[in-house]
Amino acid sequence: MSTETVESRPGVLAPGGIWRNWGRSESSTPTWIARPTNVGEIVDIVKWAAATGLTVKTVGAGHSFTAIAATDGVLLDVGWIEGVVAVDEALGRVTLGAGTNLHQLPDILRPYGLALANMGDIDRQTIAGAISTGTHGTGARFGGLATQVVGVTLVTGDGSILRVTETTNAELLPAVRLGLGALGVIIDVTVQCVPAFLLSAVERPEKLDAVLAEFEHRATAVDHFEFYWWPHTDGVSTKSNTRLPGDAERSPLHPVGEWWEDRLLSNGALALMCTVGRIAPNATPAINRLATTLVGNRDFTDHSHRVFVSPRTVRFREMEYSIPRSAVPAALREVRALIEDRGWRISFPIEVRVTAADPNWLSTAHGRDSGYIAVHRHFRDDPEEYFRAVEAIMRGYGGRPHWGKMHYHDADSLAGLYPHFADFVTVRDRLDPARVFANPYLTRVLGA
Ligand SMILES: Cc1cc2nc3c(=O)[nH]c(=O)nc-3n(C[C@H](O)[C@H](O)[C@H](O)COP(=O)(O)OP(=O)(O)OC[C@H]3O[C@@H](n4cnc5c(N)ncnc54)[C@H](O)[C@@H]3O)c2cc1C
Questions:
Q1: How far is the CA of 145 from the centre of ligand 1 (A)?
Q2: Cα–ligand 1 centroid distance for 180 (angstroms)
Q3: Which of 83, 174, 216, 345 is the most buried (most CB within 10 A)?
Q4: Counting Cβ atoms within 10 Å, is residue 11 exposed (0-12), middle (13-18) or buried (19+)?
Q5: Which residue's alpha carbon is nearest to atom 13 within ligand 1?
Q6: Residue 113: which of 13, 247, 219, 272 has the closest Cα?
């Protein structure tokens, strides 16, 4: 079907190489790689690919554990489309180039006295990549990053530029805010920010049964609650963060204490635990018990992004399920029984978070207040048996898998979990009828 000539190929395309994601769970060999620096180049690439029958996959920071960003067609890296496009100071809205990394935002937003309303555990992702998979943090009154989006501009399958806001093409907003990369190449994202704020953090070692017994209360009593449970122990590390005005007094961690806990204990010790766990698996319970006594007993107050985000230097693979918030205690007890029954040795703590219900069609929190249970394995360990068994438990609670984290669902099983699944496919048919933005992962989870 190709009528292309070498002359018609956009100059920004270079022969492809091997692409790998952060978790080393996925790799692919794109035929072409493009790093466009302006919208015109993106339009040219999409039109050329559509004409030649190639697919286009936009990648962010490659931090998804699934193959959602893998392609053997054209890999489009929008890393150069970054920074501030526009600021509406009166409304507290900032329009960002799609390739802007979340870690750039504190510097970008500081002059305007603004901040993101909520963040996840890390800030390496791009804004477009993060919203496209439903990246979230914790907080019973707060939604994921995509809920903070009030406008998106994208290049659709025929090379058209489409602006979607609350007033322009508004019916598409619940789809394009969290579009899995299936609806087009996002060029920019308009984010509703909030006045900059501090977080007062209280981190404590506690007992799992006690925390589960009053989980609903704990999850809603503070602005941002989460905990990590150390398998093979009854110990959890809880984090309870309370929002304070931006001009409240800061009492940040001492740099040495921060390095000791966040770098050495949380990451260095975890790396050691994983290594020991592989050489001498039976030592894992004792090591996990030691971990519960070493980490997570501190109080500090700092700028929101410095509290939300932590460094992650140990490479791992992850599966995360969203279930109704009220189901978290029962589901986690089942996971605990599973680990005990199977005799596995699990070094990584299991992370539990919450978010508010939201209206985005493919949000894992669509229409329900949600609890999240995330399981991890070191990237050198095969996670499949563990992840599949945990997934079976989560399916029993109507669990929805994070789009960027490992899972074993397909379009048939996912359709029943999302009331607007068919509506999303209809939007996909409209914006990308020829499936220029398809890849095998999207075909699996959305259908052909
Ligand atoms: C160490 C680590 C910690 C994490 N912590 C959290 C967490 O706390 N909470 C959470 O919810 N998730 C978390 N994640 C998952 C992560 O936030 C998501 O997988 C996120 O999508 C990664 O963003 P990215 O920029 O790397 O996107 P990629 O993984 O590169 O791409 C993800 C999707 O976005 C699409 N995309 C990217 N850019 C564009 C664009 N310009 N236009 C259209 N589509 C685009 C891609 O095509 C793909 O479909 C974590 C991942 C890691 C590795």
A1: 11
A2: 9
A3: 174
A4: exposed
A5: 135
A6: 247
Atom number, ligand 1, closest to the C-alpha of residue 61: 26
Q: How far is the CA of 284 from the centre of ligand 1 (A)?
A: 31
* pLDDT tens, position by position, 46-101: 999 999 999 999 999 999 999 999 999 999 999 999 999 999 999 999 999 999 99
Q: Render pLDDT for 246-270 as a digit per residue (tens, 0 to 9).
A: 999 999 987 766 666 665 566 666 7
Structure tokens belonging to residue 150: 């009030």
Residue nearest to atom 50 of ligand 1 (CA): 63
- Give distance in angstroms: CA of 184 to centre of ligand 1: 16
Q: What is the CA radius of gyration of the chain?
A: 22
Whether ligand 1 lies within 6 angstroms of the CB of 23 is answered as yes
Sheet holding 197-207, edge to edge: 298-303, 197-207, 235-245, 224-229, 350-355, 370-378, 316-324, 400-401
Handedness of CA 169, 170, 173, 174 (dihedral sign): negative
Is the pLDDT reported for residue 7 higher than 60?
A: no
Residues 6+ apart with CB under 8 A from 90: none
Pocket lining: 176 vs ligand 1, CB cutoff 6 Å: no
Taking the C-alpha atoms of residue 258 and residue 261, their distance in angstroms, rounded to an integer, is 5
List the strands of the sheet with 56-59, edge to edge.
13-15, 32-34, 74-77, 56-59
